[in-house]
Design a protein that fits this description.
- The complex is a heterodimer of chains A (about 325) and B (about 325).
- Chain A is of the alpha/beta class.
- Chain A has 14 helices and 10 strands.
- In chain A, the strands form 2 sheets. Chain A has a 6-stranded mixed beta sheet, sandwiched between helices. A 4-stranded parallel beta sheet of chain A has the order 5-4-3-6, sandwiched between helices.
- In chain A, α8 links the parallel β7 and β8.
- The longest helix of chain A is centred in the middle third of the chain and has 17 residues.
- Chain B is of the alpha/beta class and about 325 residues long.
- Chain B has a 6-stranded mixed beta sheet, with helices on both faces.
- In chain B, β4, α5 and β5 form a beta-alpha-beta unit.
- Classes of the chains: A alpha/beta (about 325), B alpha/beta (about 325).
């Protein structure tokens, strides 16, 4: 059972079986106040409740599980090592997934990553390396050479994308009469996986991405038809979304995503404030970008016809000390 | 008029209150999270449900009671000829102020001068007047306004119509979880606990055990049960919403009739509960987390293999307050 290169409905359904019993089928919440502000019915998929605090656990678990299964066919039993690079949530997901499978995880995180994510990774028993983002690749190579670790990309690995796609399967079951789904996009793993599911089963349902204006690689790529990559990592309050979409996720996004909306830093903070105050949900800035998008003017202009919109709240790992400054509440 | 010796609630009163709430359009049927024991870091052999009243309109369950209470005020008050007054720096005050504004009426909220200034500002924001004074002067001042100025007083936790409104929580729980073994509810004045327990028991759930949870530093209902009558206590706890200085008379009698027991939790246990819920994605204020704190610290008996519903009663906490607790 080697690594499947393609992501399709079949691989995502297989991922769903692999994840069953290990991943939380997160609930859908609604909020009348936000419906009024958006001018449509919103269905929030609460991945902030997911194990390790974000949807990333899904992809990580699927990938580690498949790796361990493929290794179990080998004659010699040796310790499996995995390595991943991450601004935070994928590191947490990978560390937890690895712990579950008895695998050693090495995670490479930026120096300024949220403290809560760093603490979580350590608590799951992973080996943590903190580096400047520009030094990620050399650090990763070093780990691979020293330990034989298998690199599992946080967004480009097909098994990770398939794992994220399971949210699409759940959404289609949980929300009847869906017109559209919107979710944040960073590396594009979630958007690639979920869009694959939606377009395979219900192609009439629109699939939208949401990005910070300052990190709009995906939006630019979709508009021009060519993958755009920034030469530097932009700075955004949505710290999980500053890396651009990769080669692999671009192919799925290009074919299956209808539009990508961008929002300002203030719009992100405002959305986070609304979700905190009205829904009493802890959602991190990156996690609330879909909400910001659905409230913005360009969504009302370009997607105004969508009456029932699912919004994925992708994660809730935020440092409590930073909250007064971000939310001003 | 507040009657401290009202008859025990009937199921008709609670259902009637529910109807009033539904007609008003001001109260939501709040979500229940199912099977969240693993999410909440509890033993996997408890089947845990969370009733999320922190997501209620105005950020706590209080609006339920207020809506029904306001449906039973004298005509002169309903028509704006009589001034409405109440006493609360907390979530009742907020819900009351919201409701008075919704009805286009005039009102005054009395609060202790120890209450944070932002509470007074919040209530003034709804267009009501706020009077701050030493705690000992609150009740005499309210009495004076009723007697001499003929104002209408809404009791913040022991009014029977308020309790009937709060009881709608119990009816909703049974709709989402038809056969709970245990229901755990935070207890301040005892209005929510009394109303919810009455709703559950009077719906025929004789096997469901309903527990109340109070802070160790404000054990008015716990001491009242021991004393055999409603008593007052000295209060000191971070859970300001659960710290009236006495158990309500109506709430006490409902407690004795319908509630299995009242257990106590420390401020540390409450803080740990707030921190746990925050880390899992929920904004819950200390008073709102007391019931969960009791389950988390093993204070609720016989929950192994049982369906346990915990009511999260409110989420009105500032980020600064949360930062101090979780930091």
């Amino acid at each position: 059972m080697g690594t499947n290169r393609e992501v399709n409905l079949e691989t995502i359904k297989e991922a769903s079986c692999t994840l069953s019993g290990h991943v939380i089928e997160t609930p859908i919440q609604t909020c009348e106040t936000l419906d009024l502000l958006a001018g449509r019915r919103l269905f929030f998929k609460c991945e902030n409740f997911q194990r390790s605090g974000s949807f990333k656990f899904r992809g990580a678990f699927n990938a580690v599980s498949r790796l361990v299964s493929s290794n179990s066919n080998e004659p010699t039993k040796r310790q499996v090592h995995v390595v991943g690079c991450s601004s935070g949530n994928y590191a947490c997901g990978l560390a937890l997934a690895a712990k579950h499978h008895g695998v050693t995880a090495h995670v490479i995180m930026p120096n300024n990553c949220p403290e809560c994510k760093k603490q979580a990774v350590l608590s799951y028993g992973a080996n943590l390396l903190q580096r400047e983002q520009k030094d990620f690749i050399p650090a990763r190579k070093q780990v691979e050479d020293l330990t034989g670790a298998v690199f599992i990309s946080s967004s480009q690995h097909p098994d990770v994308i398939s794992g994220q796609g399971t949210m699409g399967l759940e959404l289609l079951q949980q929300v009847p009469d869906l017109d559209a789904v919107i979710m944040p996009v960073g590396g594009g793993g979630m958007l690639a996986g979920v869009s694959m599911v939606i377009k395979s089963i219900c192609p009439e349902v629109r699939v939208y991405g949401a990005e910070p204006e300052v990190a709009n690689q995906a939006a630019l790529s979709l508009r021009t038809g060519e993958r755009r990559a920034f030469s530097h990592f932009p700075r955004s309050i949505a710290d999980g979304l500053v890396c651009g979409i990769g080669e692999v996720t671009w192919t799925y996004i290009r074919d299956n995503v209808d539009d990508i909306f961008t929002v300002s830093e203030d719009e992100i903070k405002n959305a986070m404030r609304l979700v905190w105050e009205r829904m009493k949900l802890v959602v991190e800035p990156s996690g609330v970008v879909g909400v910001a998008a659905v409230l913005c003017d360009s969504f009302k202009a370009r997607a105004g016809g969508c009456k029932n919109v699912a919004v994925i709240l992708s994660g809730g790992n935020v440092d409590v000390q930073k909250l007064p400054e971000i939310l001003k509440m | 008029m507040y009657d401290p010796n009202a008859d025990l609630l009937t199921i008709e009163q609670i259902s009637g209150a529910r109807q009033v709430l539904q007609t008003s359009g001001l109260c939501y049927h709040t979500p229940v999270l199912h099977h969240v024991q693993t999410l909440c870091g509890l033993d996997s052999d408890i089947d845990l449900y969370l009733k999320l009243e922190n997501m209620q309109n105005t950020g706590s369950f209080k609006i339920r009671g207020v809506v029904n209470q306001m449906a039973h005020i004298p005509d002169s008050a309903a028509q704006g000829q009589t001034h409405l007054i109440s006493m609360s720096a907390g979530n009742f005050g907020k819900a009351f102020a919201y409701m008075v504004q919704q009805k286009g009426l005039k009102g005054t909220v009395f609060m202790p001068d120890t209450a944070p200034v932002n509470r007074a500002e919040l209530i003034k924001g709804y267009g009501l007047d706020v009077e701050r004074m030493p705690t000992s002067q609150l009740q005499p001042e309210v009495d004076r306004c009723v007697k001499e100025k003929h104002m209408h007083y809404l009791h913040p936790f022991d009014d029977i119509n308020l309790m009937a409104g709060h009881g709608s929580v119990g009816l909703e729980i049974l709709e989402d979880v038809p056969d709970p073994d245990v229901v755990v509810v935070c207890c301040g004045g005892g209005g929510l606990l009394g109303g919810t327990a009455a709703a559950i028991k009077l719906s025929g759930r004789s096997d469901t055990r309903v527990y109340g949870v109070e802070p160790e530093g404000a054990p008015s209902m716990y001491e009242s049960r021991k004393a055999g009558k409603p008593v007052g206590v000295q209060v000191k706890t971070i859970a300001a919403g659960l710290a009236p200085p006495y158990a309500g008379s109506n709430a006490y009698r409902h407690n004795m009739a319908f509630v299995e027991d009242v257990v106590l939790v420390s401020d540390d246990e409450i803080n740990a509960a707030v921190k746990r819920l925050f880390s899992r994605g929920l904004v819950v204020e200390p008073s709102g987390a007391a019931a969960f704190a009791a389950l988390m610290s093993g204070k609720i008996p016989d929950v192994k293999g049982k369906k346990v519903v915990v009511v999260i009663t409110g989420g009105n906490v500032t980020t600064r307050e949360l930062s101090k607790i979780c930091g």
